[in-house]
Specification:
The chain is an alpha/beta fold. The chain has 20 helices and eight strands.
Length: 413
């Protein structure tokens, strides 16, 4: 068995993703493909437009053999921790190759950037940039560009940033994994408008959220299996889920939480908790809150992540422990017959417990107790994320919680 891994969000799974899977198979000459995928909330701190099980089914129906959930503790994080969580999980599954997309799929240049990240001189330049008030990505790209001679805009593109972080994580955690890069084709990452059969997930989400219907333009950008799944979900109003649904909940949380508790929320630093606390009293909705707090240093993406962590009660201490341990389990979301072969292989050779029945490790009663193991604590946040996410369904009939304790992985033939 030769196993190739992909780290993804599939929000939702579109034609570009299907093309990536096909090219990954060709480029790595693998026998099986496993995807490590974000759950109910994604790296930018937004709710996924459709639930994790449905997105996993779309992926397996369109070429992936097995989908494993990236725990919330790593999924809703900055690029460095997102990448590290995905790589460490793939390594524990026995993955041979990682295939990722990049705006410029030049492994020599990407590897040079990844190496420069680790140099003390780069760290010093980075700190200087931050002190000058530059955003994180800009400060880092300037520092690496100064050390390597690479163009700064090469380092600022989203997929290149993730690609560099994947390489850094491979160097640190999984040197046995062979990286393979594929150039992102046709649709830029931040493309706002669908312009053909290959479109960005950003453009597809924007169209879904504004039009509330699957028109010809949207359907042209989706594989048949994704289209069929989305039609059913939207017919029953089980999506798309919009982050603004959680605005009142967040304001209620921020208005009632203590300053000390607020300071312990991940990614809050430099007195930001004071500004958030004051702004939560002024804001009447989520957009107003973000506009009041946003700055060069605190981007909207970072604020969105802070918001989700605030709602779930994640603390800085929690994430420090999780980062030290790495992913502690492999939660199965969907698989096909080849994926079943991978699962058997993981049981024999992998280093993590496979979770197909959550209640074997955690249930709704145990979740509220004090003496949880590190695995149970990590899994708690995945299940809480689902309980919160359910409140965003347009159809109230689907808003009951506890689905993680009831739902089994999808086995597609």
């Amino acid at each position: 068995m030769k196993l190739t891994g992909i780290i993804a969000e599939y929000n939702p799974f579109h034609n570009g993703h299907a093309l990536h899977v096909d090219k990954a198979r060709q480029l790595t000459n693998c026998t099986h493909v496993v995807a490590v995928m974000s759950g109910q909330f994604v790296q930018r701190g937004e709710a996924a437009v459709f639930d994790k099980w449905s997105r996993a089914e779309m992926a397996v129906s369109s070429g992936i053999d097995l989908v494993i959930e990236l725990p919330f503790a790593f999924a809703v994080r900055s690029a460095q921790y997102f990448a590290a969580g995905g790589i460490r999980l793939l390594a524990a599954l026995g993955t041979d190759c990682l295939c990722f997309g990049a705006e410029q799929a030049n492994l020599t240049m990407l590897s040079a950037a990844a190496s420069a990240f680790e140099q003390p001189a780069t760290a010093e330049l980075f700190r200087s940039g931050i002190e000058q008030g530059l955003p994180y990505a800009k400060a880092l790209s300037n520092a690496v560009a100064a050390q390597t001679g690479l163009p700064a805009d090469f380092l600022m593109t989203p997929n290149n940033i993730l690609a560099i972080e994947y390489l850094r994580s491979i160097n640190r955690w999984a040197p046995q994994i062979i990286p393979a890069a594929i150039t992102r084709e046709q649709a830029p990452y931040h493309q706002q408008v669908i312009s053909g059969t290959i479109a960005s997930a950003t453009a597809i989400r924007k169209a879904l959220l504004t039009r509330k219907a699957l028109d010809e333009e949207i359907t042209a950008a989706l594989p048949k299996c994704s289209l069929s799944m989305l039609q059913k979900l939207m017919e029953h109003q089980k999506g798309p889920v919009e982050s603004y649904f959680f605005g009142d909940m967040l304001l209620a949380k921020l208005r009632t939480i203590s300053l000390r508790e607020l300071e312990e929320i991940p990614e809050i630093a430099e007195g930001l908790h004071h500004k958030i606390h004051a702004s939560a009293l002024q804001a009447i909705d989520l957009e107003m809150l973000f506009s009041l707090v946003k700055s060069k240093r605190y981007t909207r993406t970072r604020l969105q992540r802070i918001a989700v962590h605030a709602l779930l009660g994640t603390t800085k201490k929690d994430l420090v422990r999780f980062d030290a341990a790495g992913p502690l389990y492999a939660r199965v979301l969907a698989f096909n017959s080849k994926g079943q072969e991978v699962l058997r292989h993981i049981k024999q050779h992998g280093n993590l417990p496979l979770i197909t029945k959550t209640t074997k490790y955690l249930d709704s009663h145990l979740r509220n107790t004090v003496n949880l193991s590190p695995l149970q604590k990590m899994l708690t946040f995945d299940t809480l994320a689902s309980d919160l996410y359910a409140l965003g369904y347009p159809n109230p009939a689907f808003r009951a919680g506890g689905l993680d304790f009831l739902r089994s992985p999808s086995h597609l033939l």
